[in-house]
């Protein structure tokens, strides 16, 4: 039995939910939020998004989604074009090649793995930017961004898991 046009449209819209959530978070992360005495650093929202969906629902966020988010992030953050795309695709590749490790693991293990992957991602991104532009990213900005990433992942994962449950329940 062939799906109706509405069923096909519904399925397509559901598949866009993870990308749309990531896009909204990326746009929020770009908004300058500085306060006296604080560094201007943002969490790695795209890394957290791509990581979550690669671990929990790899079918919902493919390489094209990660690549597109990375290009947009580079445009909005004024970093060399393609750097974020490369990093996000490497994050997806690492998670997907180790997918059996992640299946059925408790949240703390998933969070610990994010800590390792995010550290590699932020250091690789800083090194590539330094090599391409000749400007070294301040270590304090790198580590504050990394710390914010680890701090914000649990609530972000909670929101994403609720969205995932709604997507599954409605199908």
Automatic annotation (TrEMBL):
Signal peptide interval: none
InterPro entries: Cell_shape_determining_MreD
Membrane topology qualifier: Multi-pass membrane protein
GO cellular component: plasma membrane
Statement: the UniProt record of this protein carries the keyword Secreted: no
Pfam assignment, any one: MreD
Major subcellular site: membrane
GO process annotations (BP): regulation of cell shape
Transmembrane segments: 12-31, 38-55, 75-96, 108-132, 138-160
Sorted UniProt keywords: Cell membrane, Cell shape, Membrane, Transmembrane, Transmembrane helix
Superkingdom: Bacteria
Keyword flag RNA-binding: no
Subcellular location field: Cell membrane
Family to which this protein belongs: Belongs to the MreD family.
Protein known as: Rod shape-determining protein MreD
Organism: Rhodospira trueperi
Lineage of the organism: Bacteria, Pseudomonadati, Pseudomonadota, Alphaproteobacteria, Rhodospirillales
